[in-house]
Write a structure and sequence with these properties.
Length: 144
């Protein structure tokens, strides 16, 4: 069973709870497994937080479009924003070498590390002056 969820999100972190609730309701309606829901919610929360905090100049209200599409074997999440051009896939892999003291490690990048591990495929493009990040995850369905 295929399905689609579309959301328009203000550039305000208060919106993250609404997005998570909508995603959970969509997942429950379509019988997605808990691990899939957790990982997709984590990835989407991280991406939206970064867009809200860093993509826009000034305090003007901006909008971020989110589309979740469920196919037979995978879930696709597309995030579109009109913020400054930024390819999140260009963020280098995080050095997780715990033998190095924290003060010697680079700051940042842990969020994209989580996104890369939560999702199975990531694509970025700039289209019509908008950032478009597409994330895909193979999903399992729970029997109803």
């Amino acid at each position: 069973m295929a399905g689609e969820l579309t959301l328009r999100v203000r550039n305000d972190t208060a919106e993250l709870a609404r997005v998570a609730a909508a995603l959970e309701a969509f997942a429950a309606e379509h019988g997605l497994g808990d691990k899939d829901v957790f990982d997709v919610t984590l990835a989407l929360d991280e991406v939206l937080t970064n867009v809200i905090w860093y993509a826009f100049d000034g305090g003007a209200e901006q909008w971020i479009d989110v589309r979740v599409t469920l196919g037979d074997l995978d879930l696709e999440v597309e995030v579109r924003d009109g913020g400054r051009a930024f390819d999140p896939l260009s963020v280098p892999a995080v050095d997780l070498a715990l033998e190095r003291p924290a003060e010697e490690r680079e700051i940042g990048g842990l969020g994209m590390h989580l996104v890369r591990h939560a999702m199975h495929a990531l694509e970025y493009r700039r289209e019509d002056d908008r950032n478009v990040l597409t994330m895909r995850r193979r999903v399992s369905r729970e029997e109803a």
